[in-house]
C-alpha cells in the first residue's frame, strides 16, 4: 500500500473549490475496483523486490552491515523530499504525476535482473543496487504524495473508510501470499547454488506486477486535466504547518511515530536472537497479524464511515500502547503470549491505518492538500528517524542483562517499555484532534457492542442505525 496518511474540511473563505470531472457511479465503481487490484499488484511488487528479498540482494552482492543499514534508512531519509513532491503534485497534477512516478519507481529495477547473469565486479554490482534503490525510493515518495492527493479527490468521504478497509484486505492477502512464495523460493533454490538466478526471477515477477499496476492506475478516474493542475504556492507550506485545524494531527504524527520508532526495528531481532524462535515461527507470527488485519478491516472501515476517524484513532492508539508491554512477558520458554500480541496488534494496527489515512485526507483542504499530506509525512518521518537512531545508540550502550522483578531484561526490554510509555503519551495527543461530524468514543463503543450483538443474535439492522444516527453532517 502506498504511503498515505488523510472527510474533508472545505474552507470557501480561504480556498476555491477545485472542480472535478463528474463522478459517474459506474465509472467510480470501476475505479475503486481497479484501485483494489492495483494495491494487490503493488504488494506483489514489494514482496518480490523489497523487504527480505532486498536484504537477500544486498547479501548476495557482498554488502556490509553499513550498506544494509543505509538501504534500510533510505525510505526514512527520503521523507525530506515530501515538500518538493507536494510542489510537483500541485504543478503537474495528482493522477499524472502519480502514474509517472510510481510507474518509474517500479520499472527502474529492470536492469538489476541482468546482474546475476552479467560479469560485473562486486563493487559495480553493489553500486548499481544502491543507486536503483535510491532512485526507486525518491520516485516512491513523489508518487506516494501524488497518489494520496488523487485518492482524496477520487474517493467520496462517505465511503472512504470502507474503501481503505477493503483495499487493506486485498493488500494484505497479496502481500502475505507473495512474501511466503518469495521466501520459499529463496530457501529452496538458494542452497542449490541458484540464489542469484532466483533473485533475478523474483525481480522479473516484481517488474511484471509493476507493469500491471501501471495499467490499473491508468484505468482509474481522475480530475479533469485543467482542474487538476493548480499553480503551487509556497504559502501553502506555511498554511499546512500553522493551520489550527490540522496542527493537532501534525503533532500526533510526530509524537506517535517517535514513540513507535523506539522499538520498531527490534521486534524481529528479539524473536530471532533472544527468543530463538526461528524463521518459521517468525513467519507464522506475521501471517497471524495479517490474517487478523484482513478479518477486521471491513469492520474498521464501517466504523470510520459511521462514527468518524477520530474515535477510532483514539481507541486504536490507546490499545496499541499495550502491545510492547506484552513483549516484556515473553521468554524462550513461554512463547504463547506472542499469539495474543499478534491478534491485538493485527486488529488495532488495521484500524489505526484506516483512521490515519481518513483523517489526513479529510482534514486537509482541497487546495494545497499535497502540502498538507507532505507535512504529515515529514513530521512522522522525522519523529521515527530521530528515535530510531537514539534507540540504536541505547541498545548499543545497554549490553549487559539486567535483573528486573525476578526476570532477566535485555536492552530490547528497555526499548519496549520506553515505546509503550511513549505510545500512551502520544495517544493522548489524538484527543486534541477535531474532526467535523465525528462522534465520541462512548458512541463508538456502543456501536461496536451493537455490531457484535447483531452478529451473535441477528438483531435487525435498525438497532445499529439508531445507535449511529445523529452525526452532524456528511463528511466530505
Topology overview:
Blueprint lengths: L24 H25 L1 H10 L4 H13 L4 H11 L1 H14 L14 H33 L5 H30 L5 H24 L6 H4 L6 H8 L4 H15 L5 H8 L3 H30 L1 H12 L2 H5 L9 H27 L5 H29 L4 E3 L2 E3 L1 H19 L11 H17 L3 H8 L8
Antiparallel strand pairs: 1-2
Helix pairs in contact: 1-2, 1-7, 1-8, 2-8, 3-6, 4-5, 4-6, 4-17, 5-6, 5-8, 6-17, 7-8, 7-13, 7-16, 10-17, 11-17, 11-18, 13-14, 13-16, 14-16, 14-18, 19-20
Question: Describe it for me?
Answer:
With 476 residues, the chain is mainly alpha-helical. It has 2 domains: 24-232, Growth Hormone, Chain: A (Up-down Bundle); 245-438, MFS general substrate transporter like domains (Growth Hormone, Chain: A, Up-down Bundle). It has 20 helices and 2 strands. The chain has helices spanning 25-49, 51-60, 65-77, 82-92, 94-107, 122-154, 160-189, 195-218, 225-228, 235-242, 247-261, 267-274, 278-307, 309-320, 323-327, 337-363, 369-397, 411-429, 441-457, 461-468; strands at residues 402-404, 407-409. A two-stranded antiparallel ribbon has the order 1-2. Helix 7 (160-189) packs antiparallel against helix 8 (195-218), helix 13 runs antiparallel to helix 14 and helix 13 (278-307) packs across helix 16 (337-363). The chain is globular, with a radius of gyration of 23 Å. It starts with 24 loop residues before the first helix and ends in an 8-residue tail after the last helix.
Amino acid at each position: 500500500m502506498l504511503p498515505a496518511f488523510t472527510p474533508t474540511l472545505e474552507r470557501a473563505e480561504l480556498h476555491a473549490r477545485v472542480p472535478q470531472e463528474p463522478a459517474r457511479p459506474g465509472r467510480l465503481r470501476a475505479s475503486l475496483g481497479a484501485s483494489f487490484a492495483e494495491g494487490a499488484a503493488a504488494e506483489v511488487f514489494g514482496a518480490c523486490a523489497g523487504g527480505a528479498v532486498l536484504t537477500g540482494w544486498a547479501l548476495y552482492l557482498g554488502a556490509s552491515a553499513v550498506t544494509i543499514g543505509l538501504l534500510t534508512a533510505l525510505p526514512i531519509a527520503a521523507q525530506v523530499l515530501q515538500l518538493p513532491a507536494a510542489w510537483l503534485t500541485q504543478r503537474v497534477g495528482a493522477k499524472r504525476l502519480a502514474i509517472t512516478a510510481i510507474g518509474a519507481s517500479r520499472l527502474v529495477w529492470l536492469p538489476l535482473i541482468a546482474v546475476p547473469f552479467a560479469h560485473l565486479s562486486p563493487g559495480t554490482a553493489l553500486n548499481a543496487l544502491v543507486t536503483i534503490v535510491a532512485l526507486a525510493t525518491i520516485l516512491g515518495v513523489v508518487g506516494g504524495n501524488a497518489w494520496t492527493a488523487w485518492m482524496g479527490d477520487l474517493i467520496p468521504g462517505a465511503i472512504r473508510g470502507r474503501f481503505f478497509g477493503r483495499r487493506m484486505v486485498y493488500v494484505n492477502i497479496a502481500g502475505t501470499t507473495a512474501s511466503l512464495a518469495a521466501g520459499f523460493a529463496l530457501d529452496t533454490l538458494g542452497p542449490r547454488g541458484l540464489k542469484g538466478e532466483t533473485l533475478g526471477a523474483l525481480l522479473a515477477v516484481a517488474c511484471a506486477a509493476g507493469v500491471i499496476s501501471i495499467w490499473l492506475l491508468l484505468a482509474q478516474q481522475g480530475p479533469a486535466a485543467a482542474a487538476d493542475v493548480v499553480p503551487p504556492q509556497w504559502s501553502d507550506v506555511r498554511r499546512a504547518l500553522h493551520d489550527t485545524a490540522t496542527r493537532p494531527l501534525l503533532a500526533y504524527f510526530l509524537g506517535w511515530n517517535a514513540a513507535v520508532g523506539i522499538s520498531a526495528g527490534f521486534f524481529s531481532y528479539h524473536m530471532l536472537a533472544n527468543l530463538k524462535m526461528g524463521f518459521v515461527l517468525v513467519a507464522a507470527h506475521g501471517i497471524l497479524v495479517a490474517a487478523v488485519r484482513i478479518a477486521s478491516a471491513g469492520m474498521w472501515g464501517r466504523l470510520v464511515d459511521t462514527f468518524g476517524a477520530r474515535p477510532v484513532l483514539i481507541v486504536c492508539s490507546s490499545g496499541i500502547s499495550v502491545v510492547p508491554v506484552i513483549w516484556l512477558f515473553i521468554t524462550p520458554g513461554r512463547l504463547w503470549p506472542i499469539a495474543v500480541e499478534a491478534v491485538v496488534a493485527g486488529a488495532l494496527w488495521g484500524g489505526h491505518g484506516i483512521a490515519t489515512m481518513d483523517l489526513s485526507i479529510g482534514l486537509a483542504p482541497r487546495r494545497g492538500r499535497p502540502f498538507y499530506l507532505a507535512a504529515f509525512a515529514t513530521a512522522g518521518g522525522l519523529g521515527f528517524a530521530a528515535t530510531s537512531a537514539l534507540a540504536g545508540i541505547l541498545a548499543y550502550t545497554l549490553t549487559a542483562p539486567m535483573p528486573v522483578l525476578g526476570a532477566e531484561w535485555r536492552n530490547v526490554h528497555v526499548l519496549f517499555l520506553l515505546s509503550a510509555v511513549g505510545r500512551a503519551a502520544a495517544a493522548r495527543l489524538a484527543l486534541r484532534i477535531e474532526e467535523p461530524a465525528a462522534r465520541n468514543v462512548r458512541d463508538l463503543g456502543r456501536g461496536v457492542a451493537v455490531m457484535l450483538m447483531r452478529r451473535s443474535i441477528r438483531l435487525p439492522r435498525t438497532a445499529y442505525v439508531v445507535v449511529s444516527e445523529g452525526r452532524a453532517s456528511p463528511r466530505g
